[in-house]
Amino acid sequence: MWIGSALAGIGGQLTIVTVMLHVFELTASTFAVSMIAVAGLVPMVLAGLYGGMLADAFDRRRVALIAATIAFVATALLTGLTWTGAETIWWLYGLSMVIAAANSVGMATRTAIVPRLIPLNQLAAASALNGVAFGLTVMVGPAVAGVLVALTGFGWTYTIDVVLMLCMFLGLWTLPTLLPEGMIVRPGLASIVDGWRFLRRAGNIRAQYLLDIAAMTFGNPLALYPALGTVLLGGGAVTTGLLTASVAVGTFASSLFSGRIVQYRWHGVGIARAVQAYGATVALFGAILLIGVFLPPASEHSPAVPLIAVACVALALSGAADNISSIYRNTMMQAAVPDAMRGRLQGVFIIVVAGGPRLGALYAGTLATLTALWLPPLLGGMLVIGLAVTIARLTPRFRAYDALSPEA
């Protein structure tokens, strides 16, 4: 499952970056690029909630396979439309929504499966291993997407994703039947109410949700990358790929050298400090972009190479900080939540993890359109630091969370 998810993830990242570049080519609008993420928010929220209920009521292997099939068909349709020249911005929005919804169900289900495959004391190490896979996918996928789009166009890039997605089926197909343990609640209103009642009592889980929403809403400049490659930094699609991949370099490196990180038992403190560090690195990225305003104008064929290099370093540091937070958040979710409730809470968790960046895309795209490209990350990074400090101070139980005695 780990190998299949990693290979399919590379293809998924190819499509994410390619759709961004595709929309920007059709519209020349950063706001239109940010709306890709916003358009998928409502379907993703609904799918995450309902997918979590499905994962707590039925065989999780089957649920994950069905979700992967839907994402595969939507990506194949996007590929066919592109090759025939029939794609429009509305097709790109619509199919992105379907893919986001299917991936939301699949991610919630696959994450709920992990604690059934390994011992409790290996969960933090497994989260770090997933960080290696995620870092590799986001590091390779966007960089390759930028190069492929620049050299071959959009059709071939989507086609490669279709091929790589087949690996997901191989990974899931090898799993045994995985019915939820404990009392099974059928999907419906009662299941949602049951899950939210548990969440109301789970103060530690709520605190980590709030911290992640703050970080991703105000500290995610992803929607700015196409414009940065075209307007401020130069280099076009290649720069867009490099900026996106730099975050993954930090994720990959921090997971690869995570021995001491996974041994740290005070996960609440670890999350809060990692989010503060994330905010600081995003603010640094914004400051670097501000410097670029005072340099000679860059273009697609004359990029500001030194500035791009420094910006990539700042983004790599942000990826490392976010991954450390993710290791502790995932471990807390898997260790502190009962198995019969894990699918629904993972569904909410996926909504938080994926919904925050979509709100962040709206924040960054709108503010950049109204002001300047450097302002959203600079201001947002400082807001993340302030919110992380405030949330940590208001939740003493969260600060005292001990991985040796996990409590939601």
UniProtKB/TrEMBL annotation:
Keyword terms of this UniProt record: Cell membrane, Membrane, Transmembrane, Transmembrane helix, Transport
Domain of life: Bacteria
All copies of domain Major facilitator superfamily (MFS) profile, residue ranges: 1-398
CDD domains registered for this protein in UniProt: MFS_MefA_like
Membrane-spanning residues: 7-24, 30-51, 63-83, 89-108, 128-150, 156-179, 209-228, 234-257, 277-298, 304-324, 345-366, 372-392
Main subcellular location of this protein, as a coarse class: membrane
Entry-linked InterPro entries: MFS_dom, MFS_trans_sf, TM_effector
Topology class, membrane: Multi-pass membrane protein
Cellular location(s): Cell inner membrane
PANTHER family in alphabetical order: ENTEROBACTIN EXPORTER ENTS, INTEGRAL MEMBRANE EFFLUX PROTEIN-RELATED
Protein's name in the database: MFS transporter
Organism of origin: Microbacterium commune
Organism lineage string: Bacteria, Bacillati, Actinomycetota, Actinomycetes, Micrococcales
